[in-house]
DNA sequence: GAACCCTCTTGGACTTAGTCCAAATCCAGC
DNA sequence: GCTGGATTTGGACTAAGTCCAAGAGGGTTC
């Protein structure tokens, strides 16, 4: 993730302790954290970091394309540090667990021109829903 | 939509003025309304209906499978009365407009067993993102 | 067609997720 | 080291939705 810090510096980011911590948290575990989870992990490393800063930094990372926002219909948005490898999500309808998956086809190709209504379509987001092995066993 | 009312009665629903109004609102315009928009349209027909009732009724319709919850990453969930014809959504990244679309392939088939991690996958939700003609012109 | 039971509705308080802002802080270039 | 302007802070605020106890009103029964 020092790569990430480099890239950010290259884009004119002023490097602060807070931003470094947020980046470290995202890099540390490749799970899909909510903003609040990022915040509490960040507080563990830098007690005086504020919620507002975490939101700011996450927002900036998203608009730079370094991190993806995922909204599987749960309450809170989640942040996915795996932005550079395109992938989709598999969500357990019961416990909310999320896994990254890599399907074979390209769903963009499945949308014929007649179904585009003049839109310039640039992106697809696919969410598979089902029951995870844990919940199925219970 | 009297069909819908029939189906609901058949499932043991007590038919009240409030529920009828919510069903009418959803049937009236085939757009994707937020709960609040449903509420304000319902108030126009039945001034004393409360927000809690609208939320309750929408939740019941969703769990009966008569209406779909759509969460394109905007703030609020939207409700899609078109639950009986499977379809996906095309969302304008700028103005948030939503259109129903019917792609050709079946994305479920694109997820190989090796990418299912033991999940019992039952559903896919596909959201295409782009810029609508209106916003592109502006 | 009156009475009753039980489901629905109400409205207001509460929760959760996130945004905003003015004042204080602190990075980076000189 | 100083300084200017970008960042951070924390607390108030907003939006969306949930919860609950009390009251209302469907529909069934006689």
From TrEMBL, chains A, B:
Keyword terms: DNA-binding, Repressor, Transcription, Transcription regulation, Zinc
Pfam families per the UniProt record, alphabetical: FUR
Protein name in UniProt: Fur family transcriptional regulator
InterPro entries per the UniProt record, alphabetical: FUR, Fur_C, WH-like_DNA-bd_sf, WH_DNA-bd_sf
Family: Belongs to the Fur family.
Record's keyword annotation contains DNA-binding: yes
């Amino acid at each position: 993730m020092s790569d990430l810090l480099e890239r950010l510096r290259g884009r004119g980011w002023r490097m602060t302790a807070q931003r470094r911590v947020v980046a470290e948290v995202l890099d540390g575990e490749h799970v899909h954290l909510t903003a609040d989870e990022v915040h509490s992990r960040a507080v563990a490393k830098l007690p005086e970091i504020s919620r507002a800063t975490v939101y700011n930094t996450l927002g900036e990372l998203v608009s730079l394309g370094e991190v993806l926002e995922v909204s599987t219909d749960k309450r809170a948005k989640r942040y996915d540090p795996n932005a550079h490898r395109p992938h989709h999500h598999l969500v357990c309808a019961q416990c909310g667990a999320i896994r990254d998956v890599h399907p074979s086809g390209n769903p963009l190709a499945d949308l014929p021109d007649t179904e585009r209504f003049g839109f310039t379509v640039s992106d697809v987001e696919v969410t598979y829903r089902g029951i995870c092995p844990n919940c199925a066993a219970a």
